[in-house]
TrEMBL record:
Keywords: Acetylation, Cytoplasm, Transferase, Ubl conjugation pathway. It catalyses: S-ubiquitinyl-[E2 ubiquitin-conjugating enzyme]-L-cysteine + [acceptor protein]-L-lysine = [E2 ubiquitin-conjugating enzyme]-L-cysteine + N(6)-ubiquitinyl-[acceptor protein]-L-lysine. Belongs to the ubiquitin conjugation factor E4 family. This is Ubiquitin conjugation factor E4 A. Its main location: cytoplasm. InterPro entries: Ub_conjug_fac_E4_core (IPR019474), UBE4 (IPR045132), Ubox_domain (IPR003613), Znf_RING/FYVE/PHD (IPR013083). The lineage of its organism: Eukaryota, Metazoa, Ecdysozoa, Arthropoda, Chelicerata. CDD domains: RING-Ubox_UBE4A (cd16657). GO terms for molecular function: ubiquitin-ubiquitin ligase activity. Its EC number is 2.3.2.27. It comes from Ixodes ricinus. GO terms for cellular component: cytoplasm; nucleus; ubiquitin ligase complex.
Length: 933
């Protein structure tokens, strides 16, 4: 009663009695404290300081009285009118959390009060629950988190306060109850919850309409100033991730009950984020789109889960063996089953897996509850696919949009100056876009989280390889060739996003922080093993697009020209060693060619733009391999094998590869030259249009931007394809000169050389070749190299090539090579020009001989002519289903791209055709007779 009477006093400072003539001002202030919860806590703190001087019974009585009174006042605030009791818990923690000696005392005081309130409520002695008592402080905390900046030190004060509520089971359960929204599928509700609010604090805006806080007016700052701002942001971003990891770790360790509720909360968060991964969400132009709600939230949650995954983020960690691969295939039928199996992340069974499951196959039963390692592993993978990967894709699109707007801006400036309305509007858009770009890049590049992510993905690579090859999963076993197939069926339960995340992270590092690969060191070999095991195997990874993405990751492992400086010598050595000393690297050329070919053979619609993204890194890797003797030898042996088996029912790998190379070169260069010609016309039209900003100008600008973009990527891909053919033909010749291939490559080379050096070349001249990556001099040089590689030798294959060049009546003429020599001399290629001159003479002789032969056999009977090519057949064959007779080389060429009869679409292979020996003999006799005459 005495304590209660003290608490209800309105002016306790006027009732303080001092026994000493010396006045202790602090003691006087404490005794006259008007805030009820503060006064009781101070009593509790002083009691603990003198505990050693008291009898146990007295100590317990006093402590019980303090806790009881504190619990009563928190439950019945109306007893103390005007005291603002509900918020005092928050302000108590805010005032004392950083003072020395108070942390343990505060924890103990809160825990005892919380347990007392919960005990009374459970015993029905009290009608007010602990959640109701704490909700006032929780609301204050939530509002503060909703306004605090990542650069404000108050953020970490608020996190420290929040962590006090994780120190007891009763408070933690109240916190989790308060943080769980009614709408479990609404991401915004989780973001605005108490546990979600600190996860939203970032250098990115919380909501779509909020402004960006950092990198304002980026064009007015130097690059090193942006770098300083970026590094200044990394410190609080790392600190927040560390503190929130500690908070969630406390909740997980506190009790089985809080662990289950915490995992449930995380699972619902991840499910609520699932819309972020939808395709429509990643197809919007980034420059004019508001920031996507949840970017900062998803990235911070990913950073927390990466730190929770650290115990198994080591290659071949024994804890990885605990990860149950069936997790993502299992979908509980009820809440009871979900609780029994400890399944907290829903909807993963809808995700596409690495290989399709056998029809009618049921999801594997876990055979017991899923363990924490499994849930943490897949929670981490899922949030990385919805967070980091989505933001990286948006950053890449934003970069492309900015480049396009920059080109329009430069054009507008050149025509209308800096003061025009169009120029100012474009500059403003670029400023906003750069602010977004720098903010997104800063949060993705936070070094500590990036290092954790790299370690996690390397560990995942070892887990995937083990899962795919091991006969038993209870221990890691060394790999050997040929790779075992024991685990292919298990991969039907592993979502594609596991490998997508690995590829995305490594490609991001290549683009924005290549030095971070040094953090992986010699562990890069595990990524190479993953590539070799999965990239060339549809049995392990069915999606050809994903296998092509692995080729992009493979390109990252190649040392670049920027690696010459001293600081990167060791990382470069580690990466170079992969291509020379990795135990399975001999499989790399054939693996890469399998992927190259499989893009074309998907049976799906694959746009050329997709092929551009997929195949360009493959060209770079193949070029790198060609410069290594062992790999070059392997490619030459694949070419020899292809030539020896050119008429097999299944076309050899290398034959399909060069067939696609030629197909792509024909299509891409033809389209590129067409777009360049169209650009020239548009530029000429533009000079005659209305002034800058008029409707015709805007329409013409949009049209030119579209055509320019198409020209750019066709030029890049066409140039890469011709460059690849140039180095391939230095040592692989006879396959290109085989009757199946020789006419196609000869007519292709003639056609493009004529357009590049002949009278029509003036149609390709535009204002700036470099803007569209148009390199006519390089194209002429590489095309001429292919000519000399295939035709200059004194061999039957070279002669066959020369004949094929000469009999191309559409593009070849005696003037073609002198025109090419003129261009070569202008660009300093005199030696190549001499070789082209010698080849021209050889082809002239072949042309003369061909002319005589054509005159002699010009009136050939209809039955001797190939029905498709209208040329005299050399080796007539009969197609089994249609009964049509045509030349062997014609049908062989057709079957490389389409394994059907061209006349009735029936299935067809080379082994099914039959040679028409009688007709062949008749043709030979007739030809010999005509040539003799």
């Amino acid at each position: 009663e005495l304590v209660f009477e003290r608490l209800v006093l309105d002016d306790p400072q006027n009732h303080v009695v001092s026994k000493s003539k010396y006045v202790d001002q602090q003691a006087l202030a404490d005794a006259g404290e008007t805030r009820v919860v503060f006064y009781l806590y101070q009593c509790f703190s002083r009691l603990n300081k003198v505990a050693a001087k008291l009898e146990n019974e007295d100590y317990e009585t006093i402590e019980k009285t303090i806790v009881s009174q504190a619990s009563t006042c928190l439950c019945h605030c109306e007893i103390y009118p005007g005291k603002k009791i509900p918020q005092q818990v928050f302000y108590l923690l805010q005032e004392y959390h950083a003072e020395g000696g108070h942390q343990e005392s505060l924890e103990s005081f809160l825990k005892k009060c919380a347990d007392c309130i919960k005990g009374r409520f459970d015993a029905e002695e009290e009608q007010v629950s602990l959640l109701e008592v704490l909700s006032h402080s929780f609301n204050l905390l939530k509002k503060r988190f909703g306004k605090v900046s990542i650069a404000n030190r108050e953020l970490f004060v608020l996190v420290d306060i929040l962590k006090y509520f994780t120190k007891s089971v009763s408070m933690a359960m109240a916190l989790l109850d308060f943080s769980t929204p009614a709408e479990l599928v609404d991401l915004r509700s989780f973001q605005e919850s108490l546990l979600g609010a600190p996860l939203c604090v970032s250098c990115l805006p919380r909501k779509e309409a909020d402004p960006f806080e950092f990198f304002e007016r980026p064009s007015q700052a130097l690059m090193n100033e942006h770098a300083i701002t970026e590094s200044n942001l990394w410190l609080p971003l790392k600190g927040l991730a560390v503190e929130l990891h500690n908070l969630f770790y406390s909740l997980l360790r506190l009790s089985p009950e809080t662990r289950n509720r915490t995992l449930t909360w995380i699972g619902h968060c991840i499910t609520a984020c699932s819309e972020r991964g939808k395709l429509w969400n990643n197809q919007v132009s980034e420059l004019f789109m508001a920031v996507q709600s949840g970017d900062g939230f998803a990235l911070n949650l990913g950073a927390v889960l990466l730190r929770l995954a650290r115990p198994f983020s080591e290659p071949y960690s024994p804890k990885l063996l605990k990860v149950q691969h069936q997790y993502c295939s299992f979908e509980p039928k009820s809440e009871q089953e979900a609780n029994a199996t400890c399944m907290h992340i829903r909807g993963l069974s809808k995700e596409t897996c690495l290989v399709p499951r056998e029809e009618g196959a049921a999801s594997e039963s876990p055979g017991g509850p899923f363990n924490f390692s499994t849930e943490c592993f897949f929670a981490c993978q899922r949030i990385l696919s919805l967070g980091f990967r989505v933001v990286h894709e948006r950053l890449a699109r934003l970069s492309q949009d900015l480049n396009r707007v920059r080109r329009v801006y430069e054009e507008a400036r050149s025509q209308g100056g800096d003061s025009s309305e169009v120029t100012r509007r474009l500059q403003d858009n670029m400023e906003k876009g750069m602010t977004r770009f720098l903010s997104l890049k800063a949060v993705l590049l936070e070094p500590d989280s990036l290092e954790h992510m790299l370690q996690f993905h390397v560990a995942c690579a070892t887990w995937l390889c083990h899962l795919a090859t091991a006969e038993r999963l209870d221990a890691f076993q060394p790999l050997c060739l040929p790779f075992p197939e024991h685990g292919n069926a298990r991969l039907a339960y592993v979502p594609e996003f596991v490998i997508e995340n690995i590829c995305d992270c490594i490609v991001f590092v290549k683009r924005f922080s290549e030095k971070s690969l040094a953090l992986v060191g010699t562990n890069l070999e595990h990524l190479m093993t993953l590539i070799l095991l999965f990239m060339g195997s549809p049995q392990r990874m069915n999606n050809p697009h994903l296998r092509a993405r692995m080729a992009e990751m493979l390109e990252v492992l190649i040392t670049s020209a920027d690696d010459d400086h001293f600081s990167s010598i060791i990382p470069s050595m580690n990466r170079e060693r992969l291509f020379r000393n990795h135990p399975f690297v001999a499989e790399l050329p054939s693996t890469l060619l399998h992927v190259f070919v499989s893009i074309e053979m998907t049976g799906q619609s694959v746009t050329f733009e997709q092929k551009f993204h997929y195949r360009r890194p493959m060209y770079i890797v193949l070029d790198h391999l060609w410069n290594m003797p062992d790999h070059r030898s392997k490619m030459k042996s694949l070419a020899a094998e292809a030539e020896a088996n050119i008429e097999c029912s299944s076309p050899p790998l290398f034959l399909r590869f060069i067939n696609l190379l030629i197909n792509d070169a024909i299509f891409l260069l033809d389209e590129a030259l067409s777009y360049m010609s169209r650009l020239r016309e548009l530029q000429q039209e533009r000079q005659q249009q209305q002034p800058l900003g008029g409707p015709l100008w805007s329409q013409g600008e949009a049209n030119m931007q579209h055509v320019g973009m198409l020209a750019h990527f066709h030029n890049v891909m066409g140039t890469e394809t011709i460059r690849t053919l140039a180095w391939l033909t230095t040592e692989i010749k006879s396959l290109f000169c085989h009757p199946t291939m020789v006419d196609r490559i000869a007519t292709m080379l003639n056609y493009f050389l004529l357009h590049l050096v002949g009278p029509q070349k003036k149609n390709l001249k535009v204002k700036d070749f470099s803007e569209y990556e148009f390199k006519p001099q390089e194209l002429v040089q590489n095309i001429c190299r292919i000519y000399t590689n295939l035709g200059c030798a004194n061999s039957e294959t070279a002669q066959a090539f020369c004949v094929a060049v000469s009999r191309d009546g559409r593009s070849y003429s005696p003037e073609l090579f002198p025109q090419a020599q003129s261009v070569l001399l202008k660009i300093g290629q005199s030696i190549l020009s001499i070789g082209v001159g010698e080849l021209a003479e050889k082809i002239l002789k072949a042309a003369s001989h061909q002319k005589q032969e054509d005159e002699a056999i010009g009136d050939a009977p209809e039955e001797f002519l190939d029905p498709i090519m209208s040329t005299i057949m050399n080796d007539p064959v009969v197609l089994p289903s249609s009964g049509i007779t045509l030349d062997r080389s014609t049908i062989a060429r057709h079957l490389l791209s389409d394994q059907t009869d061209p006349f009735n679409r029936s299935p067809l292979t080379m082994e099914m055709v039959t040679s028409d020996k009688d007709l062949k003999n008749k043709i030979l006799e007739w030809r010999a007779k005509r040539m003799t005459n």
